[in-house]
Amino acid sequence: MNIENTQVQMRKGILEFCILHIISRGEVYATDLLEELTTAKIMVVEGTLYPLLTRLRKAELVSYKWVESKAGPPRKYYVITKQGSAFLIALKSTWVELSLSTEKIISVVSTKVKK
Amino acid sequence: MKKNISINIAGTLFHIEESGYHLLEEYLKSINAYFSTFDDHKDIIEDIESRISEIFLDKRSTESEVILLSDVKSLITTMGTVTDFEASLDTDNNPSSDDLSDKEGGVPKDQAYTNGKKRKLRRNTKNQLIGGVASGFAYYFKIDPLWVRLLILGLFFNALFIGLSTATLITYILLWIALPGASLIEETQVKKLYRNKEDRVIVGVASGISAYFGIDRVVIRLLLLLSILLGGSGIIFYLVLWIITPEAVSITEKMKMEGEPITLSNIETNFKNKLKVVEGDENPFIKVIMIPFKLLAVVLETLAKILGPLLAFLGEVLRIALGIGFILIGLGLSFVLLIIFLIALGINLSWSDVMISSFFPLELFASSINALTAVTLLLVFMIPMLAIVLLGLTIITKRSLLNRYHGATLLTLSILGIARLSFLTPATIKDFITENYVQITQNFEPTDSLFTLTLAQGGQINDRVHLYLAGHDKSDFKAISRIMSRGNTLENAENNAADVSYAIVQEGNEIIFARDINLNRTPYRFQEAEITLYIPFGLPFKMDADLGKILRNTLYPNGYNTSNLNGNKWIFDQNGLNCITCDLPPFDTPTSPNIEYSTTRKPMVQSRPTWEEIDLEPPIYDFENFKDITISSHLYVTIEQADHYYVALKKKPKDEDLQFKMVANKLIVKDTADRD
User: Between chains, do B96 and A9 touch, taking CB under 8 Å as contact?
Assistant: First the structure.
């Protein structure tokens, strides 16, 4: 068992959930998405975002549209699809369950230690 | 002063420091290679590039105009390297993530990712020993290239069929030409056989095998040692594996060798371990046994250092020579094809006749196929020749001159040609569908002096003139020439035969037979001449030694062969041909009067031998009521109908005795020397 490996695994599933969530708030530019993720420290390197976005798009959970930009070339703005919304709702309930049960377990362990 | 380079990322122009440019180039290459196995990798790369452009634009507006090396470095830190991606994206080996996606009832993300991609068969230019065909196949079937290479070697060096080796070689070369090259990333999950140079005696084959199969390397080494001592097959095995397995150099490769999944954490662990490599924990006994091999390794290495440049040079020379060889072969064959093509079109090249006609049936091309077929044939055969030339050029220049479009074009033309050919062939075959003949009779008057039958000087013998000799009770020579031909109708066949001539001329006491028929510009339709020359009984004559080349079914049935021809005198009587002057008169002659040497190819009918003419009284055996006969292969046997069973043996006194016996209605005849 390896601590770094486990950490990566823990982060991974949640990462997609977070990305979907951010996109679900309204159309978003990949760079803004990145900023939010890196500030929240849920994503370490930026390069991993793009394959994830492509994967989500392949699964038809998100789609994108081109928007003209003053600063440079046109930008991809991501939007959530109908399927994506349904997917996100399912993920959300799982997350709530998970965090609740995790919290429960963690708290029990800490009380035991106190005794 | 520093040199700047202009680059264009995602449509924006940047000036970048040279050192920074090289780093960025390397970085983009590695990313490209990494994502090339992903679905929609173009999109991913595009996104990453536009992000890079954005970061650079940001930098440019706040700091200097030029992108510096430090900027590229910080970019790489933000974007992450391939190892970072591997650590967080390559989840196939991890069951927990699969479980997660199942629980969520969502799309099986990871499977969709790796299995959804359709693999294409390509040559793998990234891992090639010769042309990258084997590793291309390995990539396609998701296996270690090792197995494909072993299979190819096995097929090539198989001891059973030479044809299989040739077929393997040709298939390899064809695939080399046909498959487009691509730089393929091998499966990270496939455990691969590497040579482990860190733990080696000679070049690390044994420890590589031990890592692959998870067996202790001592066991492998002892097995290798044993096989070397017992017959030496181990040496070949070792050499083959040395050549076909790569050496594990990078940490990733070392991990693949061990079959560990490649993740960031694993790489780190390995890196840490690498720093504290422990010298092998083998027992002293093994170490002692391995000493000579370690010495061998040292010698080999020293030799390699000294001879390395020389060998490299020789290798280059060999490569170029091979390339030139291919080019020459290709050009030569193309040239020959072209000449045949011109001849087929009716263009007469007098000098080319000399070159080709000795081994190629020119007439067949000159008159039996039309121009269209000729063009088709040229198309079908010329393309492989061109491919050979291109292959030669490829070997010399070391890069593929055929891109996939050229290849596809050539392939299409080939297929068109073959299709066209398959369409034309029946039409050509139709011209050969029936057979007919014309018959010409010539008479020659005998002269007072000894008559000689000779073969004309000059010209080729094409085995389509067959001369038969027979006797008759007239006083002159009679030659019946039957010229046969094929054609699309009986009439056409007859015409094709009638236009062909065969020359038999009398000059004094000589009858001269031409060496070949004269087609007289008739289309080639398998024309043949069969001549039967009737010779008066009792008239001695001579035959030219060369006549044997066209003489058929005349000497042998009468007990002679072509070596009897030269200088001897011959005579026909009622029983057939006799040599008057031969040293040893033939004994075992199944004589038969009035043999009708039929030119219509009917089976030859022989009547019963006349015993009275044989000097010796043949021994008669009284075997009866046998229903089956088994006879040694070298005996001459005549079986015929009679009133009663009658077994007679004709033999020369010095011939070996024969054994006759009856076993359950079966008559067995064999040499006494033969074993049962």
Answer: yes
